[in-house]
Amino acid sequence: MENAKRPFMDKDFLLDTEEARILFHKYAEDMPIIDYHCHIDPKDIAEDKNFDSITELWLGGDHYKWRAMRQCGIAEKYITGKEDSCKRFMLWCRTLSQAVGSPLYHWSYLELQRYFDCRLAINESNADEIFDMCNKKLHSGELSAKKIIRMSKVKVIGTTDDPCDDLRWHKVIAEDKALGCKVIPTFRPDKVLLIEDSGFADYVRALGKAADVEVNSFEDLKKALSARIDFFTSMGCKSSDQSTVMFPCIPTDATECEHIFRKGMANEDLTEEERLGFITEIMLFLGKEYRRHGWVMQLHFGVARNSNTRMFRSVGRDAGFGRIHSDAPIESLAAFLDELDKTDDLPRTVLYSLDPTMNTAIDVLAKCFNDEGVYGKVQHGAAWWFNDNLGGMKDHLRSLCEQGVLGNFIGMLTDSRCMLSYTRHEYFRRILCAYIGRLCADGELYPDEENLGEIVRNISFNNALKFFGLG
Questions:
Q1: What's the CATH number where 316 sits?
Q2: Are 78 and 87 in contact (CB under 8 A)?
Q3: Which keywords accompany this UniProt record (predicted)?
Q4: Whether the Cβ atoms of residue 175 and residue 148 lie closer than 8 Å to each other
Q5: Which of 92, 228, 262, 447 has the greatest count of CB atoms below 10 A from its CB?
């Protein structure tokens, strides 16, 4: 007999066993959120921004959506341009109606349901009605930035901040005792790793100015970075975040580092070994600083950015032309972690690879570095970017179960620029509960509801609270 048809994205969406439904509704659904890595602009929170339209919210900075629209042949002026807001929205609805089975499809419907109580089909025919319905609610002030945060039960937001940032918006937010959410900076020193970039010298000078350190040498550069880390700590920072193709381990002596630094400041050509040696020494120094301050070190790797030269010249960096880099060697990452661990300078660390074929290798590597009393010192971070979808999350959870200790996992993050993206935590929790519930239903897990419920609650919230020192 054919199975009964299931309603579209109802309260039991993705929960295909009774065990999954119990775990989600009883243990996960009402847990608050720690969004420990995102790209929300703290200015929007500080000013309690009211958004002009659903177009601004959905398309203003979301390169996931931009990529999909380009694949449907839509003109760039309707993607990253400022053309007619209503038409841009209609074109997005047309795109989404074709992107069946994608995470964008699920996220968009969840956002309409949770924030706008809208259950219309997202397509070209309904675009005008959805546009008007959403904008009416946005213009009412019901969904300002702070109200969205409270409505979503977010307790901590970790923004992404350059070391040169004065963090003035964080200071403003900290004065709002009614928000009910900590908004803390995350130290993102990517630009200091780009010694081959033509703007490196200007960036170093800006960093020195922010740190009140005249940077004329590699040692001066380290002093400036240390000063900024001290400042970020004073502002509540609990973690760093770095993103590059790979994390090398080519230790380089002080004399050679000075030579490489001076070449970079003069915009002279560098050999690949010099470039990687410089990154190694900067990252080893930073890792020790993070350990000294009790920070978490987040490492994002395996991404090749700006792969379309013509579009890079037209619309700039990080506009939706990244891809998976298939040559981010686990050997150099392992050596880098070990180099810090040799002197007991390895901080708590989160590893995110864009290449899903590295799941097993990362989970096995993570088990090589531990500290007494620390649950999961080196974490395999949430399925990232092209992997934060139904299949990618299942594969990630399977690897965590088979090679690590699932109960130690620090759970989901949005990694988003959109204020509505907190539904991604719900999406993840549903997938988590479905995965564990299926193991129970298939007789692979002992049906200890109390234990499994505690694991679900910990992964949803408690583990990140403890891991990042937020409790």
A1: 3.20.20.140
A2: yes
A3: Isomerase
A4: no
A5: 92
Query: Which tokens in the block code for residue 403?
Result: 């090679």
CB 220 within 8 A of CB 214: yes
Q: What confidence score (pLDDT) does residue 83 get?
A: 80
Helices marked H in 119-253: 127-139, 145-151, 168-174, 190-193, 200-211, 218-234
Tell me if 309 is assigned to some domain. yes
Q: How confident is the model at residue 326 (pLDDT cuts 50, 70, 90)?
A: confident
Q: Tell me how far apart the alpha carbons of residues 244 and 192 are, in angstroms, rounded to a whole number.
A: 11
The kind and range of the H/E element at 281 are: helix 272-293
Q: Is the pLDDT of residue 30 over 60?
A: yes
Tokens of 289: 């600083």
State both tokens at 7.
């309603």
β-pairing, 323-324 vs 303-304, is antiparallel
Is 467 within 8 Å of 379 (Cβ atoms)?
A: yes
Helix axes 85-98, 127-139, angle to 10 degrees: 120
Residue 413 falls inside a structural domain: yes
Among 89, 104, 139, residue at a domain's last position: 139
Residue carrying the six token digits 């007494």: 372
Q: Distance between CA 137 and CA 217 in Å, rounded? A: 55
pTM (two decimals) = 0.96
CB 432 within 8 A of CB 378: no
Question: Is the residue at 46 inside a domain?
Answer: no
Q: Domain count of the chain?
A: 2
Q: Which of 93, 110, 139 is the last residue of a domain?
A: 139
Q: How confident is the model at residue 306 (pLDDT cuts 50, 70, 90)?
A: confident
Asked if 93 and 178 sit in the same domain, the reply is no
Nearest to 148, CA basis, from 122, 126, 115, 125? 115
On whether the CB atoms of residues 95 and 72 are closer than 8 A, the answer is yes
Output 219-223 pairs: Cβ under 8 A, ≥24 positions apart.
219/254, 219/258, 221/192, 221/261, 221/282, 222/285
Report which of 363, 319, 399 is spatially closest to residue 76, judged by C-alpha positions. 319
Q: What is the pLDDT of residues 133-143, one digit of tens each?
A: 999 999 999 99
Domain that holds residue 72: 51-139
Same domain, 220 and 271: yes
pLDDT value at 371 more than 70: yes
